[in-house]
Amino acid sequence: MKISVWPTVETKGELELADAEWLHTNGAGAYSMSTLALMHTRRFHGLLVAALDPPLDRHVVVSHAETCVEVGRRMYNLSTHQFPEIAPTPGFRLLESFSQDPLPRWVYRLGKYRLERKLCLARGRNMVIACYTWFGKTPARLTMKPLLSMRPIHDLRSEHGGIVQKVSLRRGEVMIQPVRELPRVVFGHPGMFMGSPDWWRRFEYSEDMRRHVHYQEDLWTPGHFEMILAPGEPSYLTAAVDELPSQSPAELMAQTTQVLLALDPGPERPLAVRSLTIAAEQFRVPACSRSASLAGYPWLGVRTRDTLVSLPGLYLVPRLFEEAKGVLRTTIALRTDGLLVSHVPEQSSPVAHPTVDGSLWLFEAVRMLLCFAPETEGFVLEEVYPVLREIFERISRTPGELVWLTDDGLVTSHSDTEPVTWMDSRAKGEAVTPRHGLAVEMQALWTRGSETLEALARRAGDAQLAERAGYARHRAQEAFRRRFWCDSASYPYDCIDDASGASDSAVRPNALLALAIDPSLFEGWQARAIVIAAREHLLTPRGVRTLDPASPGYVGYYEGGMEERRAAYHQGVVWGYLIGALARASLRALPDDFELQMDIRDWVLHTIENGPVLGQIAQVATGDAPHQAGGCPAQAWSVAEALRTLVDDLKL
After folding, report:
1. How far apart are CA 571 and CA 553, in angstroms?
2. Engineering a disulfide at 129: which of 120, 302, 306, 387 sits with its beta carbon 3.0 to 4.6 angstroms away?
3. Cα–Cα distance, 352 to 341 (Å, whole number)
4. Under a CB-based contact definition with an 8 Å cutoff, are residues 549 and 623 in contact?
């Protein structure tokens, strides 16, 4: 698939073409997601995945909709499923095309005629609407059997005897509450409902199988709906958590369509900018009481580091400054021991540990906010500045646990249990990429953050803090220049263990982050050496590798079970979001190189093409060709950094 504003795929009955994934969100954490064939390949797929504590606590409510259409004496089954040891059920053969323009839309060829199905999530509601339009000469009969999971997104459902099979009927409504601990589900329909509760067994999810986790599920149905499709007239079936709204399905679909169409910045902007602007909206969740951005679909929640790295691309580039302020309020509200916490916890897991680099990224996010919107200074001084001061004091205090300053003013950190940098990963209880001590990008976050705090303290009239922050910056800069450059590698050390004196001279992308964040740490020749080495050893068509392939610990694949994937996570796996750091670092090292700007544009365009989810960019890819996408299939900071690079760095 090439880049397009609204994705369109001509499937022509080919399952391979219908294997791509689509994503549709409601602005409050709920989503619909599957393959184009509607054959689920992940446990996270579903037609209504509701956010019961918006934007979190997501549950797969309506997984499938088993759909048949009767035309004359002919019955057409539109559904495609994978069951054990047999070929997929053949509904995909009827699928002519899929479009998301802006709502997900399927066109089926039924004999000589067409059926169009649209899917829509009501904005801010846990509600899905299916709209069917029949383009035949005589009426057709549609039968739809909802298949329900009613479970958290990370779980799977197996047949059991605890389902509550009671069904309450009103005119045009069917109400059920099959799981007592969860809210009821209400269906709206224009036809008739026939109750026949039953289990459908052993659906198989191929992506879960590939990830070496349990991959079979049983789904429950309360019965089926029947309705007559008049030629050319839309007919609607809806499913909602708790209750149906007073507005009609047609009105709700029109509202959603209007919101999504308004995202397109217009034909005067480059196609990639338009596509990424639309993709960025899916991670923002303004339609709920808790402003936040989701780190990725379908399984990632609200992560502090991801939120702050993504803020410029998701909010500042599209000039959503009020929303950005709300996101920052949510981010700084949760703190422990003077630091931000790693994520907004789910109701089922209320504990969140402190994040060191996430806390330092707050300084960078605030600096970017003031660059884009100087008028937000009042908000920053009143609400965020006290938190920045608290983080600065926490890191500056007497050496202790988790994070502190060395004698020469550099940031050092250590934890046997909690991650302290973005590149920490553990497999079988052991650190795969141990970065205890002085991490190169942490120093840049500290020095640039101290500069930001110094400026804010002067504006706030706190001369003493301004002087301390300025001194901290100067001290750390001098120590960094003295200790971090590795002459033998012509590249900075990635990490220095201050306790043992050991240092990691492998070529990793963290020096790019450091150069992008605070270029004053490097001489001009050093900056150019970093960029040249990164382009030669780390750059791929999918993003930037986490380790030079020539290094002994390099792992070029990303597959297998959780432990195997964790072992490869930062040992060569490609991360899409790092293209933004490479772009910023390159432009700061070679600001007048026009050909470089063209190269950067091409780098970004390559990361956008052919992702697993239409219009989105995945979290990671394999280090070795063909650089197959993996990890979370739609990742916020991958999209955000690609968009920020095109608009802010390249001025497209």
Report:
1. 7
2. 120
3. 6
4. yes
Helices (H), 374-497: 377-379, 385-396, 440-459, 463-483
Residue range 8-261 forms a domain whose CATH class is mainly beta
Does residue 451 contact residue 445 with C-beta atoms inside 8 Å?
no
Q: CA-to-CA distance for 338 and 379, rounded, in angstroms?
A: 20
Residue ranges covered by each domain of the chain: 8-261, 271-649
Token pair recorded at residue 638: 């991958």
Instruction: List the CATH code of the domain at 271-649.
Output: 1.50.10.10
Other beta carbons within 10 angstroms of residue 483's beta carbon come to 17
Cα–Cα distance list, 272 to 276, 314, 575, 603, 643 (Å)? 6, 15, 19, 12, 8
Q: What's the whole-model pTM score?
A: 0.95
For 577-599, the pLDDT digits (tens) are 999 999 999 999 988 888 889 99
Residue closest to 582 by CA, chosen among 569, 570, 599, 557: 599
Over 80: is that where the pLDDT of 138 sits? yes
Q: What digits encode the pLDDT tens for the residues 463-483?
A: 999 999 999 999 999 999 999
Per the DSSP assignment, residues forming a β-bridge with 219 are 200
Residues 22 and 614: beta-carbon distance below 8 Å? yes
Token pair of 486 as six digits = 């590795």
Using alpha carbons, select from 600, 595, 603, 596 the residue that is nearest to residue 627: 603
Helix, strand, coil: what percent of the chain each, to 5?
A: 35, 30, 40
| Residue 112: other Cβ atoms inside 10 A | 8
Calpha distance 10→598 (Å, rounded): 31
> Could you report the per-residue pLDDT of 274-323, keeping only the tens digit for each?
999 999 999 999 988 889 999 999 999 999 999 999 999 999 999 999 99
CA nearest 518: which of 585, 582, 579? 585
